[in-house]
Amino acid sequence: MCNIRSEIVQKGYPSLHTKAEPVREDEFGTPELLAIIAAMKKALAGEEDGAAIAAPQIGISKRIFVIAENIFGPTHPKYGSKDPHLVFINPEITKLSKKTAIMDEGCLSVRGTYGNVRRAVGATVSARDEHGVPFIRGAGGLLAQVFQHETDHLNGVLFIDRALETWDAEYPKRKSE
Q1: Neighbours of 141 (CB within 10 A)
Q2: Secondary structure in 3-state letters for the chain
Q3: Is 4 among the domain residues?
């Protein structure tokens, strides 16, 4: 696994349409796992409006997603990290609010298409970080929406599969453009 891509794959790519494999216990702390996470962070950092990314979006069928700092806030207080990302490995949504709302969504793997998706307005996720440390994170609003969107990716579901309606619009440029 030394040549891991940091390019984002698009709808139709096999990893986007299959359920991702859990990260095994013996994979925590390995150079391979850290390389996958680094490639995800690089891909996400290259997107002007990227909120989060799941491993299947770089062609890796692993249950990992990474959320950008602009969604969860500056630094992760638990670890005092300066890394502008929060890593979720083997995430499980343990609770969804009964209240739902129709929310606008887009996706780095479905460029140029946006839509309305009904999502729970609150969600709680149980996961492990890149060091294997378990944590639970609850959220409302946009962060709860991101939890649900990224977990869908890990289950082979794209937002367009759930959308009540979709429309085409100009996709923001990548930071490198």
Answers
A1: 12
A2: CCCCCCCCCCCCCHHHHCCCECCCHHHCCCHHHHHHHHHHHHHHHCECCCCEEEHHHHCCCECEEEEEHHHHCCCCCCCCCCCCEEEEEEEEEEEECCCEEEEEECCCCCCCEEEEEEEECEEEEEEECCCCCEEEEEEEHHHHHHHHHHHHHHCCCCHHHHCCEEEECCCCCECCC
A3: no
- Give mean pLDDT, residues 107-128: 96
Catalytically annotated residue among 47, 105, 130, 150: 150
34 domain-assigned: yes
Residue 98 domain flag:
yes
CATH number at residue 134: 3.90.45.10
The number of residues making up the chain comes to 177
Domain count within the chain: 1
For the entire predicted model, the pTM comes to 0.89
- 32-63 pLDDT, tens digit each: 999 999 999 999 989 988 899 999 999 999 99
The pLDDT of residue 1: 44
For residue 78, give its domain range. Answer: 14-167
Residue 148 lies in a domain: yes
- Concerning whether 150 is annotated as a catalytic residue, the answer is yes
Please check the confidence at residue 89 and state whether its pLDDT lies above 90.
Answer: yes
